[in-house]
């Protein structure tokens, strides 16, 4: 556990948050990551102007790495009709427009590939994930059934998912492979496998949702099998000079069974398969054990990233109510993680990195687009010419001035 008052540990030394980091062949300008955030604005899996503007503003705001959103590797791997996907060439071209702009702004574009499994066929967040029904057919096709390790519905009101046979598993592995190759063509420099939040990989990991009796179920090493096969498949398809992340739910959630000891064991195996960063989140699967709800307090998932980093010797990313510059700096300075990810705070303040750089005495204008930075530097030059308290003459006519003092 990080000590009490984590934010107080940050000092006036050179900021770690704004120190570049090199991951394989990719150098990132700072350690601040825009965490993947589903937008539910895609059309047939492809991004629209919404994604171009939404993710582009984070790059303009100064973040080092800009993740888009969880991107399904096949159409039936989406939760909703409006989820992002990467299973055809049209989507590749649409994503390339977004990644080109992110790079132009000096940030690194990153993609999170996933498969929702049994969470398929739902409405979006604003409709509380209500299951689709026959009235929600699109183009004459009824809503799709999800895949899962075992025929256990995601929650009340959802259909029983298709229990995956070995052929289904091979199909999903091939979908991850092909989507990874498309991600390269789409211009992404970082890829993350989504193994958290109750989606397909997490469903295999947790004994709450995995009741199989074959090589993919039962003991922990069997339940980890699909996660590790996907890690191997994606690593083989992803360029060797580009980093690969893996997001975990360090614990299942209230009433769950998968815990932090399990995550440490998984992280050891991921490290052996050349995963570069373990992205430590939590939640997504509920059961009836004594596991409590993870409290949403500032930095509540930092302890997970800290233990994985310390015990496994692998780089980690911390996420979860990290909202203040000194707090983010302290996470890195305390050795709890190598990257800090933010989501909702950036939705409010897309230029949060600029404010943080100013507070941490980093070169915040260097994070801006050159044309904007030029104007800001000129403004500062003009301001220093007349410090607060100065008295100046303001022209009000060709032959008349008025005295003006401020500050």
How do you describe this structure in short?
The protein is of the alpha/beta class and 407 residues long. It has helices at 49-60, 89-104, 166-185, 200-205, 220-223, 225-237, 260-272, 302-312, 325-333, 344-348, 352-359, 370-385; strands at residues 21-23, 26-28, 32-34, 65-72, 84-85, 108-114, 147-148, 162-163, 190-195, 244-249, 277-281, 315-319, 339-342, 391-397, 400-405.
Strand order, sheet with most strands: 3-4-6-9-10-11-12-13
| Alpha-beta content class | alpha/beta
Corresponding CATH superfamily of the largest domain: Aldolase class I
**Largest beta-sheet details:** 8 strands, parallel, barrel
The first-level CATH class of the largest domain is given as Alpha Beta
What does this protein look like?
With 407 residues, the protein is of the alpha/beta class. It folds into two domains: 6-366, TIM Barrel (Alpha-Beta Barrel); 369-407, no CATH class. Helix content is 33%, strand content 17%. The chain has twelve helices and 15 strands. The strands form four sheets. The protein has an eight-stranded parallel beta barrel, surrounded by seven helices. A two-stranded antiparallel ribbon has the order 1-2. It has a two-stranded parallel sheet with strand order 7-8. A hairpin with a 2-residue loop joins strand 14 and strand 15 (400-405). Helix 1 (49-60) packs parallel to helix 2. The longest helix is centred in the middle third of the chain and has 20 residues, at 166-185. The model is unreliable at 1-12 (pLDDT under 50).
């Amino acid at each position: 556990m990080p000590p009490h008052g984590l934010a107080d540990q940050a000092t006036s030394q050179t900021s770690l948050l704004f120190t570049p980091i090199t991951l394989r062949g990719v150098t990132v300008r700072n350690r601040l990551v825009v965490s993947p955030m589903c937008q539910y604005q895609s059309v047939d899996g492809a991004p629209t102007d919404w994604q171009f503007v939404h993710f582009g503003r984070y790059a303009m705001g100064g973040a080092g790495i800009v993740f888009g959103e969880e991107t399904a590797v096949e159409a039936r791997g989406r939760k909703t009709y409006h989820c992002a996907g990467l299973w055809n060439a049209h989507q590749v071209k649409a994503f390339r427009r977004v990644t080109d702009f992110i790079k132009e702004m000096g940030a690194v574009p990153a993609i999170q590939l996933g498969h929702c499994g049994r969470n398929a066929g739902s409405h979006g967040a604003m409709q509380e994930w209500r299951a689709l029904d026959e009235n929600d057919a699109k183009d004459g096709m009824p809503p799709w059934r999800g895949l899962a390790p075992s025929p256990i519905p995601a929650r009340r009101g959802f259909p029983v998912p298709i229990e995956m046979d070995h052929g289904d598993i091979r199909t999903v592995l091939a979908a991850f492979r092909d989507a990874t190759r498309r991600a390269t063509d789409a211009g992404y420099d970082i890829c993350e496998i989504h193994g958290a939040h109750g989606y397909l990989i997490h469903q295999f990991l947790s004994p709450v949702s995995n009741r199989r009796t074959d090589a993919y179920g039962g003991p922990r090493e069997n339940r980890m099998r699909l996660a590790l096969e996907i890690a191997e498949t994606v690593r083989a398809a992803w360029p060797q000079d580009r980093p690969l992340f893996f997001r975990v739910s360090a614990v299942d959630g209230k009433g769950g069974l998968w815990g932090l000891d399990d995550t440490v064991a998984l992280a050891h195996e991921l490290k052996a398969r050349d995963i570069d960063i373990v992205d430590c989140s939590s939640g997504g699967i509920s059961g009836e054990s004594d596991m409590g709800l993870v409290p949403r307090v500032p930095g509540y998932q930092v302890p997970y990233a800290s233990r994985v980093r310390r015990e496994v010797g692998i780089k980690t990313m911390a996420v979860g109510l990290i909202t203040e510059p000194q707090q983010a700096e302290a996470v890195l300075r305390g050795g709890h993680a190598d990257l800090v990810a933010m989501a909702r705070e950036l939705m409010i303040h897309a230029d949060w990195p600029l404010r943080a750089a100013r507070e941490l005495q980093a070169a915040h204008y260097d994070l801006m687009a050159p044309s904007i930075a030029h104007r800001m530097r000129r403004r500062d030059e003009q301001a220093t010419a007349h410090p607060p308290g100065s008295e100046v003459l303001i022209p009000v006519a060709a032959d008349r001035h008025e005295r003006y003092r401020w500050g």
